[in-house]
Amino acid sequence: MFQRELWRDRWLTWRFESRRTLGVPGLLGIALIATAMLIVATTPATDSEDITSKTRPAKRAGHASTGRPSAGPIALSTLPELFPTFGQSADDIASIIGFARESNLTLGSAEYQMGNAEPGAGFLHYQVLIPVKDQYASIRRFVALVLNSVPNAALREIHVERPAVDGEVLDARVRFELIYRRAGP
């Protein structure tokens, strides 16, 4: 019984001294380091050469087996071919307007503008400015729907104003840039 009280007394003394010296953040840091060392010590080592030899055949196969491009490196000359042509712009704009209606936004009159294309560049830039009104969550959901569903769309600008201090309805102007490849060589 005496031995047990002696160990308990030493434990309490050590705990008090370590807390006083290191503080709670220091003790948590030591616990995290000890946990990381334990994970590293118990994780089996893998041979990196074995892993790369297993993944190389999949990269060589490319997109023949799945029908989609592989996650491997893409040649810069094939990059424009991944983008749609300008002929798809009407469908993309219809999708964007559809997402705005799906998000129950009040739409204003949209503006469309062809961006300045660099001579010799393989891409065209088409900007769409859409004024919308609704709550913040609805506007954010609309932007997320467009960016997740239209792969050649980029959010160029968003400007949000609150017309009334106590109001929940926001006026927003959302500018998307749609990127298309040139149809010619």
List keywords for this structure.
single chain, 185 residues, alpha+beta, Alpha-Beta Plaits, five-stranded antiparallel beta sheet, 5 strands, 45% helix, transmembrane helix, membrane, transmembrane
Structural features, described:
By secondary structure, the chain is α+β, with helices and mostly antiparallel strands. Among the domains are: 48-77, no CATH class; 83-181, Alpha-Beta Plaits. Helices cover 45% and strands 21% of the residues. The chain has helices spanning 2-42, 48-61, 89-102, 136-149, and strands at residues 106-107, 111-114, 123-134, 153-161, 170-181. Strands 1, 2, 3, 4 and 5 form a five-stranded antiparallel sheet that branches. A hairpin with an 8-residue loop joins strand 4 and strand 5. Helix 3 (89-102) runs antiparallel to helix 4 (136-149). Residues 54-68 have low confidence and may be disordered. The chain crosses the membrane at residues 21-41. Keywords: Membrane, Transmembrane, Transmembrane helix.
Mean pLDDT: 79
Report the C-alpha radius of gyration, rounded: 29 Å
Q: H/E order of the elements?
A: HHHEEEHEE
Contiguous uncertain segments of 5+ residues: 54-68
Assembly state: single chain
| Overall morphology | elongated
Helix content: 40-55%
- CATH superfamily assignment of the domain at 83-181? Ribosomal protein S6/Translation elongation factor EF1B
The total count of strands amounts to 5
Distance between the termini: 91 Å
The secondary-structure class comes to alpha+beta
* Strand residue content: 15-25%
Count the DSSP helices: 4
CATH architecture of the domain at 83-181: 2-Layer Sandwich
The biggest sheet amounts to:
5 strands, antiparallel
Q: Indicate the CATH class of the domain at 83-181.
A: Alpha Beta
